[in-house]
Amino acid sequence: MSEHKHILVVDDESQITRVLRTSLSSHGYDIRVANDGETALEIMKDWSPDLVITDLSMPNMDGLELLSKLKASDEWKSVPVVMVSTEGSQSKVLEAVEKGAAAYVRKPFNADQIKEKLAKFL
After folding, report:
1. What is the tally of structural domains in the chain?
2. Do 10 and 57 meet the contact criterion of CB atoms below 8 Å apart?
3. Residue 30 is part of which domain span?
4. If both were cysteines, with which of 26, 39, 44, 58 could 12 make a disulfide (CB 3.0 to 4.6 Å apart)?
C-alpha cells in the first residue's frame, strides 16, 4: 500500500485538473483525474481515494449527484468530498453541505486554497 494519500479530482475543465494534478502531486499526493461523476465512480471500483475534489457542474453526472452516491455508499460515505464551483449561490453551497460535502471552494481558486482545505481532512 502506498504511503501517499490518494486524491481523486473530478472536473470537466482540463485546465483545472492539470493544475490540481501538478500542484498536489508535487506535495506528495497520489492523484487520479476524472472528467465527470460516472468516470469517477468507475475509477473508484479499483482505486480508493482518501479524498475527492469535485466540480459542481459537469456533464453526465454532476458533483451533487456524485456526492449523493458516495454518501449513500457504505464503502465511500466516510471519504471527505470538497466541492469546487463557479456557482457561489448560497442555495448551492447549502445543498452541497446538506448532502455531506466537507468543504466548498469557489472558482477561481489557487492551489494554496485547495491545499489548505485538504490539510483539514488528510
Report:
1. 1
2. no
3. 6-115
4. 58
H and E: helices and strands count for the chain: 5, 5
The pTM of this model reads 0.92
**Which amino acid belongs to residue 1?**
M
Q: Residue 63's domain is classified under what CATH number? A: 3.40.50.2300
DSSP annotation of 27 reads T
The tens digit of pLDDT for each residue in 22-70 reads 999 998 999 999 999 999 999 999 999 999 999 998 888 989 999 999 9
In a domain, 101, yes or no: yes
* Distance, CA of 40 to CA of 65 (rounded, Å): 12
Nearest 10 degrees: Cα torsion 33, 36, 38, 40 = 20
Terminal CA-to-CA distance of the chain, rounded, Å?
16
